[in-house]
Automatic annotation (TrEMBL):
Family: Belongs to the cytochrome P450 family.
Organism the protein comes from: Abeliophyllum distichum
SUPFAM superfamilies, A to Z: Cytochrome P450
GO CC terms, sorted: membrane
Gene3D superfamilies, A to Z: Cytochrome P450 (1.10.630.10)
Superkingdom of origin organism: Eukaryota
Identification of the protein by name: Cytochrome
Record key words, sorted: Heme, Iron, Membrane, Metal-binding, Monooxygenase, Oxidoreductase, Signal-anchor, Transmembrane, Transmembrane helix
Positions that bind heme: 370
Amino acid sequence: MQLQLGELPILVISSPEIAKSVLKDHDPSFADRPQATALKIMWYDYTDIVFAPYGNYWKQMRKICMTEFLSPKNVRSFGSIRHDEVSRLIKSIRSSSGQPINLNEKISSLLSSITCRTAFGKVSKDSGNFIKVMNKGIELAGGLVIADFFPSSKIVNTLSWSKIRLLMMRRKMDVILDNIIDEHKDSTSKRNGEFGNEDLIDVLLRVKESGETDLPINDANIKAIIFDIISGGTKTSSSNINWTMAELIKNPRVMAKAQAEVREIFKGSKIIDENKIQNLKYLKLVIKESLRLHPPFPLVPRCSREEIEISGYTIPVKLQVFINNWAMQRDPKYWSNPEIFEPERFEKSSIDFLGGDFKYLPFGSGRRVCPGMTFGLANVELSLAQLLYNFDWKLPNGTEPEDLNMIENPGITSSRKENLYVIATPYEFMA
């Protein structure tokens, strides 16, 4: 489907077959991201990883982040931070004494703490302020900037109130990130991680000072990468946990089955051993199904780098292309009862998160598949296992599960429109 938004033509793809042509068969031809005012401002002129143009800079920065921070080995090394923060969450929920809690706020705080501790090392005094500014920046970036649809109009571009608000938010973020980076520069240690290792900023400063890349990097590039990692690690994972808990509460049969599994695997334990989470087969199906109905990125953005023919259609250079992940993952042509939350549909399926099956792309596919997938899933799995193990859940004020509002909030990522208020009853597990 082709749309015309002002002066801007956009192609929306809702077919797995055509998505395969774009994301696999002709991946290099569509390896760029669309440009937009909000992305240019908040992601430091596209010098991050998610929105950077395909090329040498993107390849080198992605490689550095994958090998030095987001590799499976490094993600495992963050296990004690995950356990520490999830334990704080469980303690906080226990203290609610049967009163309704805002689970969205609790989960957002959890993921912010985990991600900031892994990226900044010892908890920075500026972490809280950064998260507030980041959330507001992402909210603004998810809205419409009229100037993007009329790029030839200097008047629209100059008088854009959205652009002014984004620039103001960027300046606030600059001050906070400059302070965090300066803390690391002034530190006598080059290893500011909590366990004597390098944190993300240490790694990026080392790369900057040593000239390890073919292209020099500066503090603005470092800030762009930080914004990527923190926003991705916080927003998408917290959204996934909230959606999964909402679906479980709305579907008591699935909730009971998932709780029975986790309570059997960890029977008598007060601490959940992360190594045993691999045994939670049904929970993994639950997460897969939640990501099917509520993909973190409902639209996967690409941009053509050259003129090319796809399925008999000529795609011009620099055409914005959006893979409609949300539609494909609910299409009855490929999924039976697509609107029903049914984890068992994946029981005998080989579909995974790697983007090889083009009707299911929660993390994208090809060269630009989500680099933080392993990090995010580790946080999601442990958090959900602990929540299901330690508590029974119900809605407040006598609200029935089937009446739970599941309306989505439009934006860059898929999130619930309403906060999820729940009552948690501690589960008395037997030794």
